[in-house]
Amino acid sequence: MRRKLLLLFAFLMTDLALFANGNKNFMFKKESEINRLVQMAIANENKKGHMLYMIGKERALTQKMAKEALLIALGVDVEKNREYLKESANLYERILNAVLKGDRELKINASKNKEIISFTKKLQKEWKKFKSHLKPFYEKNSVKKEDLLYIVNKNEDLLRDTNRLFLMYKKEDNFDNKLTDSMMNALDFAGRESMLSQKIVKEKLLVLAGIDKERNIVKLRGSFLLFDKALRGLLDGNEKRGISPAAVSHIRAELLEMKSIWDSMIPVIFKTELNREDLKKLVTLNLPLLDKSNKVVRMYEDLADLY
User: Fold this and answer.
1) Quick one: fold of 179-307?
2) Whose CB has fewer CB within 10 Å in the chain, the N or C terminal residue?
3) pLDDT score at 26
């Protein structure tokens, strides 16, 4: 958003320069200023809002990968979920590597923060071990029970540590102190939705598979309540957290589409027994919900960049 404003300002300055009555010195100064503004706009592509969005995406990917491994183990759309899982793993790894090396296509600059660099290297080691148990699921090898159990037992450790990286980026830019409490709470609500959309389905699949069933029923209810509360808070406001109802038209429109998908998922989430059609419905609705969640996060972070 800010980049667009800067570029618009640059173009306006170009128009002013054209009316400088042939004053070459004026023209030269204005052209230099335009170049400076354009460089600022390009650099702003790597704004902190973008990094928070990308690392936030990593949090969702930890749950998405666990969900996709479970779908493969349960024999649900195996070939398609192998493709999805491979894409998820490659993207998680690419974003993690970009923190250290940068990635022009992803618009990520290499971090210069020693704490972030050190922690990311530790996280890479954790990821390498996690990935070794994940690869058999998308490389068409025979899936071993120990691989599935490792993913089930360790995915939330990976989520926790990925979230630590997210908080480091947030702290680095002193993000909390730049925003009103209302905007910060809205960002927190929006940011958790992408991850929770995947965590909910993962937990439902664990219940269906009979893996630590009672514990995962409790976790599923907790994840459901968090997602539902955040969505309603963004739409209708949350007085306790100081969040006003969504008033920006394009954000509200996306939230309403999210709610429509979510409302269709709720009956399936709480069904005790799922037939093939129920499972297909849950999985089919889940990806659009993730896409909408990601869009909403990006919209709120663009809005936050104006503060």
Assistant:
1) Four Helix Bundle (Hemerythrin (Met), subunit A) (1.20.120)
2) C
3) 43
